[in-house]
Amino acid sequence: MSDDPKVPDRAASAGVDAFLKKAAAIPRGKAPGSGGRLLFGLDATASRQPTWDRAAQIQAEMFQAASQLGGLDIQLAFFRGFGEFKVSPWTSNGPDLLRRMTSVTCLAGQTQLAKVLKHARNEQKRRKIDALVYVGDSFEEDIDDVGAVAGELGLLGLPCFMFHEGSDQLAAFAFQQVAKLSGGAYFSFDAASAATLTELLRAVAVYASGGFQALKDHSRSGSGEVRQITDQLARHRNG
To answer: Which of its termini does the chain have fewer beta carbons within 10 Å around, N or C?
Structure first.
């Protein structure tokens, strides 16, 4: 890992400012001081390298902004290389999260989504997590194994927000299954969708901090993409 910080571009900084202003006005669905907890899983294998720096910067900036609202603890989990899987401590410290996020580099290896989900399951049994975000572009595992764990997360009340980079059809199918079985949401994006990714990550941060009602309120003034993931959650909640 490199500890060299990356400089946020103007678009990302403007997005953070807009998010802070909008999210500060959102009514919270949780009691004051109860906070929210969000587990953020990343595929850091080599196929993501072309867009990694841009995506990592947006992700770190958005969650740093969310932490400044005082209602969100975040844990970073990522995999890469030959079976490497790492997890950070839970933190609400924005600068610490930014440093950890931007220090991750990509290494060639197989996907390990099952490890992310199993870790989430174990964490959820110890203390409630409000949402899991996963960002990846491929899938190279047993779909039944992964689906079984996703179903457990659904029973435990932990929705998975699956953000799919690119157009790999096997990954699309697997991520959609995880979202459905866990009661979460799926959305695809590409290298030109930086603004879309920013908006979606804002929405998940709002959900983790304030609950479903806060997300519904946020979606009224959000993009069509935000309304899509809100609708997916609503369908799962209604059976």
So the answer is: C
